[in-house]
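Our preliminary data section would be incomplete without showing what the modeling component actually yields. Below, a chain of 96 amino acids is followed by its predicted structure, encoded as tokens that our downstream tools consume directly.
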Amino acid sequence: MPLELDPKLAWALAHPDYFPVELTTAAYEEILRVPGIGPIGAKRLLATRSRLVLLDLDDLKGLGIIVKRAREFITWKGKDLKTLNSAFHNPQSKFK
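Predicted structure:
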């Protein structure tokens, strides 16, 4: 593994067949593979994802997910989050 990369990121880059991870249906173990998502963020996501309506990346940030790292490796309801820009922030409630 390259020493200049975070080990989890290096693993993810070396195993593209495991990505993207669909956050609305993935198991805890699958979510943990995503760079930028640790155990706390994964647990928070699992606890709230049935109520979470993703309007922008700030929703994920609020769960403790490091979006800058994770966005390349995840989808939400089939949507690619690489290009989703939090500049389109909607101040309405993000929960149903």
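The longest strand covers residues 74-76. The CA atoms of residues 12 and 34 lie 7 Å apart. Preliminary results of this kind motivate Aim 1 of the renewal.
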